[in-house]
């Protein structure tokens, strides 16, 4: 008789689907998103690229519940998004740590439960980003890359089902950036959250994402699947071909 193979026990949160339908968002006379449609599957890793000012951060803020569309709708996990959700976490280019709180308290901030529970969750998350031994430090003594790892731990501690990453590696040097990309990929695989990464770096998008989505003129102008095994090898001929395709779409677009 065949034994039924059960998946290993895991704490991994199941990623949530994201559905963006005909979203319009403008600021005064400036129309930024002009009826944008985008569907993201549970647990998928999607990278958003596009020219500066095309509306990438605007879209991420909408997905994070920090802003609302003028018209159109957004569902997360099949439920209309109405504001901030504990299951959706954002990470930015700057770590945004509170300088008067130690590293562990920064990570524990806003976690549910009593103090001991919050502290244990913060230490576990710091361990996942390799910074358990820096828990008692002040943020100011950390490097830029370490601060971003703390920011990642702060997001992870909430066991997010959607992680929104707004150019989180933009300010890091090339080596630290690659190390952080690997860390994000590992954590995404282990935790199973849905990831949406805004990046200017097309090779970063292709290293990490299942799909690269290019926004132009307020809509999705290109939606490119990246069907390559992970971890992906830099300089791989297939990646280079996809990179040329995305870059040519970016460069071909008429300037606004
Ligand atoms: N709250 C706001 N009020 C007024 N204008 C805004 C606001 N938020 C965004 N904008 C404008 O909307 C446009 C899109 O901004 P957004 O930050 O989404 O672009 P982006 O694609 O993320 O750009 P970048 O790649 O340079 O970060 C820009 O022209 C920006 O100035």
Automatic annotation (TrEMBL):
Residues 18-242 form the ABC transporter domain. InterPro entries: AAA+_ATPase, ABC_transporter-like_ATP-bd, ABC_transporter-like_CS, ABC_transporter_ATP-bind, P-loop_NTPase. Gene3D superfamilies: P-loop containing nucleotide triphosphate hydrolases. GO terms for molecular function: ATP binding; ATP hydrolysis activity. The keyword Coiled coil does not apply. Keywords: ATP-binding, Cell membrane, Membrane, Nucleotide-binding, Translocase, Transport. It comes from the Bacteria. Pfam families: ABC_tran. Belongs to the ABC transporter superfamily. PANTHER family: ALIPHATIC SULFONATES IMPORT ATP-BINDING PROTEIN SSUB, TAURINE IMPORT ATP-BINDING PROTEIN-RELATED. This is ATP-binding cassette domain-containing protein.
């Amino acid at each position: 008789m065949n034994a039924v193979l059960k998946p290993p026990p895991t704490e991994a949160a199941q990623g949530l689907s994201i559905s963006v339908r005909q979203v319009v968002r403008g600021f005064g006379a400036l129309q930024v998103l002009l009826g944008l449609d985008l569907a993201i599957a549970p647990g998928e890793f999607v990278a958003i690229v596009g020219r500066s000012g095309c509306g990438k951060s605007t879209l991420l803020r909408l997905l994070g519940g920090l802003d609302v569309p003028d018209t159109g709708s957004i569902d997360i996990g099949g439920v209309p998004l109405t504001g901030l959700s504990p299951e959706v976490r954002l990470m930015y280019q700057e770590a945004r740590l509170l300088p008067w709180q130690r590293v562990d308290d920064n990570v524990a901030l806003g976690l549910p439960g009593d103090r001991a529970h919050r502290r244990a969750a913060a230490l576990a998350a710091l361990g996942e980003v390799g910074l358990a031994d820096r828990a008692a430090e002040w943020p100011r003594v950390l490097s830029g890359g370490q601060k971003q790892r703390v920011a990642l731990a702060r997001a992870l501690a909430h066991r997010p089902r959607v992680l929104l990453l707004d150019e989180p590696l933009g300010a890091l040097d090339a080596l630290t950036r690659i190390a952080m990309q690997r860390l994000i990929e590992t954590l995404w695989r282990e935790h199973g959250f849905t990831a949406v990464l805004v990046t200017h770096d097309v090779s970063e998008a292709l290293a990490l994402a299942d799909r690269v989505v290019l926004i132009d003129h307020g809509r999705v102008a290109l939606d490119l699947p990246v069907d390559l095994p992970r971890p992906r090898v830099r300089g791989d001929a297939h990646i280079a071909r996809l990179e040329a395709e995305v870059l040519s779409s970016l460069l071909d677009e008429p300037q606004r």
